[in-house]
Amino acid sequence: MLTEFGKIFVFMLLAIFFVIIAVVAAKFIRPSRPTKEKLLTYECGEDVVGSPWVKFNIRFYVVALIFLIFDVEVVLLIPWALVYKEFGMGGFLIGAIFLLLLGLGMAYEWRKGDLEWVKPKVIPPVIKKELTPEKVEA
User: Fold this and answer.
1) Helix axes 88-112, 58-75, angle to 10 degrees
2) Helices (H), 31-87
3) Which of 43, 50, 63, 73 is 20 to 30 A from 35 via CA?
4) What is the DSSP letter of 32?
5) From the first residue on, what is the mean pLDDT of each consecutive set of 10 residues in the chain (138 residues)?
6) CA-based nearest residue to 49, from 57, 41, 58
7) How many Cβ atoms are within 10 Å of 75's Cβ, its own excluded?
8) Where are the domains of the chain?
């Protein structure tokens, strides 16, 4: 008799076996007609220019993540906008607070400069040495 963990183990083995069988069967069934165009990196007809190991500025990823965060939050506003009247003033206030927090987050990111493609360089402060009376006489 199998325990619950034994059943899970058998299920995982069957899943792995199924995947291996499907990949091997697909290799034998599919047609293989490689051409020069099919062996290129891009099948769209564009010629490859330069190395694929190009360093991207991290700003692209930061802006993309900020977009995703705010985009998901804005999607949450659609159901609220459809039913807030049913919840009365309480539902409206909760949505208004959510919008306020969303706006504050956007203002914070804007003020921080994360929405700019070119971030301004930070110039560190320089401390000027003051002349003391002993140095003035010398």
Assistant:
1) 170
2) 58-75, 77-83
3) 50
4) -
5) 91 97 95 80 71 76 83 85 86 89 88 75 77 60
6) 41
7) 9
8) 1-30, 58-112
